[in-house]
Amino acid sequence: MTMRASGNRRGVTLVELIVAMTILSMGLLAIVGTSSAIARSLGEARSDNLAAIVAQSRFEEVAGSLCSGIALNTTRTVTSRGVTEKYIVQNGGNNTLLVTDSISWKTRRGTRKQAFQILLPCRPNA
Known about the structure:
Blueprint: H1 14-63, E1 76-80, E2 83-91, E3 96-107, E4 110-121
Antiparallel strand pairs: 1-2, 2-3, 3-4
């Protein structure tokens, strides 16, 4: 019976196994941390998108109205789905309407605000 030298043994030592598990654990924790940051960013993007949709809806509403039915130079405030909008319709000259819509909504970091403006052609009375 011959004995092998200890340098020829196959397998991993306990120290190698602990180091490998530590490196693997750190990689998994980094992935988990990144995924939570991505989830937060997606939630904020959803709120930003909702605010832009609210402004777009207001512009489409004004564009579909007759000019004679729109009260000019009156600021209105509307709150819907956590988004507050203040809008004003003014005479833009040359038979146009200038619509300014200021949107505000709450996020984790505080209240965000965005202003949108558009110049729309005036629909004649039919």
